[in-house]
Amino acid sequence: MSGVVKALAAFAWALLAMFVAATAVLLVSIVVTLPQIPRIPDDLTQLISVPPTEVFASDGSLISQVGGRSSIPLERVAREFTQAILAVEDDQFHDHSGIDKPALLRATFNALAGNTDRGGSTISQQLARNLFFSFDKTVARKFKEILATLEIERRFSKDEILEAYINGVYFGNFAYGVEEAARVYFGKHASELSLAEAALLAGLPQSPSRYNPYRNPELAKERQHWVLSRLRTLGWISDAEHDAAIDEELTFRPLYEQQASGSYFLDAVLDELERRYGETVLYHGGLRIFTTMDPLAQEIAVRSLQDGLADLDRRLGLPAWSVETLDDTTARPQGALVCMETATGAVRALVGGRDWRISQFNRAFQSSRNMGSVLKPVLYLTAIERLAVHPASMVSDSSITVQIPGARDWTPRNFTPYFYGVMPLKQAMMRSINTVAAKLVLAAGPENMVNTLARFNVRTPQEPNPSIALGATSVNAIELAGIGAGIANLGATVEPYLVRRVEDLHGRVLEEHIVRREQAFDPDDVYLVIDMMRGVIDAGTGESARRLGFDLPAIGKTGTTDDFRDSWFLGATPRITASAWVGFDDNRPMRDRNGRGITGASGALPLWAKFMNRATEGDPPREFRVPPGVDLITIDPHEGIEVPEGFPGGLRVSVPRDASLPDYRLLRLDYVEDWSRIDEIVASFDEFNRMMSERGGAGVDTASADTVAGGWRDQPGEDQLRGRARSSRERRRAVE
Fold it and tell me: Which of 332, 364, 527, 727 has the fewest Cβ atoms within 10 angstroms?
């Protein structure tokens, strides 16, 4: 028995020793820490007077200040709001002395375990946090914050603390404090808020961007319902009050009545940095954000998009648009335009819709739309790499049907109801021939096209289906511009970016973007695509850009999706790259008053041309660099053989220096009956080309019509094609 007593006594002494040691450590920590705690001001409102976050354009001009606060006394705030904010942030506010002990223990345990995502901060602690210029979530920082919180609670009343808090919290849309938030969202004073309105506002501070009712109305409504349920659970409102607030229809103040301080570019920057740093640092840290935005280019982009959409409205038979009269954004076509510096990926202008004040949905980033033929350059590059073809390779525009296991047969159609027959690959790109694209993707492999997209830094998930060749997939407008820049850079890809540098309140650099160019593709291969895309804008589906006055050397590609639901255009000069899209948000078809569909050439291209005409004013006519492994020659487009420069009807093309002409290998694809054997067919390309060359190169007249392209013998236009072939030989003899 005496042994047990001794053991208990030893254990008691050990506990006492541990308590004394812990107390000593605590006292030493307090002594060491107290001098490091900033002085608490005599007026709590000084705690909420943190410097605003400033956002600058590329020329150093100030774009926006995220800040500005209207402070009002607590008695001028609706009781419904003070209850709602306490229910969300600190329901024990009137019962504790600044520290919610259970929540603090959970937060401490999480911090020791390395999880700093969830805290145990009371409203008093959140106020105390404004004393510090570092937002690191460390145990030492938390300890200092607790000491400051206790001092705030000792010196100020609960009403003074709550008043300071609700006047300093950020509610999104550049509104600090409840008075400003009530004005921005509902056009009224904080004293006039209803329970439903108060619940919505109280739910915003946790993530102003995520719960923004203008941009994410469904998420904002879900958050409001949660706040109301929380109030009911706490017994602060009755079931009847809860139900009435749920049923109340909120009427938000139209953004066009507010100051035009927001924009799609600014929203994109703030969203990106909020994900990186969190809401507290971004909106309370006094950051200095230096962006890539060119103010003049941004202004031109906004005006070009709005003018282009106004012209489209007229063609669609819609009445003149004004921001004050537009109630339903789905009733009008929308658009997006992105411009970036080709060499670096710096985004100079970004517009995500017709008018930011009406709709903050950023279609340049957030829209998921089919691409149509605007992705064909990626397919052609894949075919060049995988099949060793080039712009002078002869292809056949002829019908094709492919059996797909578990799905309907795939029979791609062209924009026109007839077939062109045999032509060079460059002309297939210029005319945006779908049947040729279908054969190319089957021969090169859709999975390889997906890989090519990834090498262009496209992160939108892709499925390796054959229909990807015709744009039955999605990338966003900024990714598309990145593809264009990578092509214009001769295969040196760049990451599109909007933020150059971020500094903290003291000028310390938190991050700085370093431009990295990765040579992801062979320049010789990419120049072959550049050559074909120049043909698109000079004499192909994008030639209307020339009629609209844009005359600089450029590459381009149009895109139109099924039933004219989406209109795309991608174009680039060696200096800048721009992508444009127009379409209805609800995905309805676009047809003019005469029933004609709006294509990439008639929808997105005109606003692209409007932008480029002004954005490139003063630019010299700079050509794309021709790599040493590429030759520029003239070919007979009907037979695929080289002819002298000046040959009537000749087509200027780029070819690899070691290319042998004529190249008929791709015509072999017309023989394929079982596409599961495509690997065998591809393996026989070179032998087939040798055989056809030995026949004298009569690509269309003799061999092509009867032997090579038997698949299109009965198609419309054969006699016309035969006649063209005969006349081409006659023209060649005349030149020779």
Answer: 727
Q: Which structure tokens are listed for 400?
A: 């094709």
Cis (ω within 30 of 0) for the bond into 424? no
Pick from 471, 586, 576, 560: nearest CA to 568: 560
Distances (CA, A) of 187 to 182, 192, 194, 197: 6, 10, 13, 11
DSSP E strands: which ranges in 388-470? 394-397, 421-424
Give the C-alpha separation, 487 to 429, whole Å: 15
SS (H, E, C) 562-603: HHHCCEEEEEECCCEEEEEEEECCCCCCCECCCCCECCCCCC
Mean pLDDT of all residues in 305-313: 95
pLDDT at 503 over 60: yes
Give the model confidence (pLDDT) of 96-154 as tens digits. Answer: 877 766 655 555 555 445 544 344 588 888 877 766 545 555 556 666 778 878 888 88
Q: Give the Cα separation of 242 and 291 in Å (integer).
A: 44
CA angle 400, 405, 410 (to 5 degrees): 25
Cβ partners under 8 Å of residue 724, min gap 6? 638, 700
Q: What number of residues does the chain have? A: 736
Whose tokens are 């006394």? That residue is 73
Tell me whether strands 53-56 and 288-291 are parallel, antiparallel or unpaired: parallel
Measure Cα distances from 116 to 136, 273, 702, 707 in Å: 10, 19, 76, 72
Please tell me the predicted confidence (pLDDT) of residue 49. 64
Neighbours of 516 (CB within 10 A): 11
Kindly list the distances between the CA atom of residue 74 and the CA atoms of 23, 198, 425, 517, in Å, as whole numbers in the listed order: 40, 14, 73, 55
User: Would you tell me how many other CB atoms lie within 10 Å of the CB of residue 266?
Assistant: 22
Kindly state the helix (H) or strand (E) to which residue 710 belongs, with its residue range.
none
For 164, the 3-state DSSP assignment is helix
* Strand locations in 192-271 (E): none
What is the sign of the dihedral through the CA atoms of 292, 296, 299 and 300? Answer: negative
Q: Averaged over 168-183, what is the pLDDT? A: 88
Contact 167, 177 (CB under 8 A): yes
* pLDDT tens-digit readout, 208-233: 989 999 889 999 999 999 999 999 99
pLDDT score for 689: 86
Q: How confident is the model at residue 106, as a pLDDT?
A: 56
Closest to 705 in 3D by CA, of 694, 692, 719: 719
Which of 451-460, 615-624, 690-699 shows the lowest per-residue confidence on average (mean pLDDT)?
690-699
Average pLDDT along the chain:
84
pLDDT of residue 426: 98
Tell me how far CA of residue 437 lies from CA of 204, 206, 538, in angstroms.
49, 49, 21
Please check whether residue 190 is in contact with residue 76, taking contact to mean a CB–CB distance below 8 angstroms.
yes
Q: pTM, whole model, 2 decimals?
A: 0.75
Instruction: Work out the angle at residue 480's Cα, subtended by the Cα atoms of residues 344 and 383, and round it to the nearest 5 degrees.
Output: 100
DSSP secondary structure code for residue 169 in this structure: -
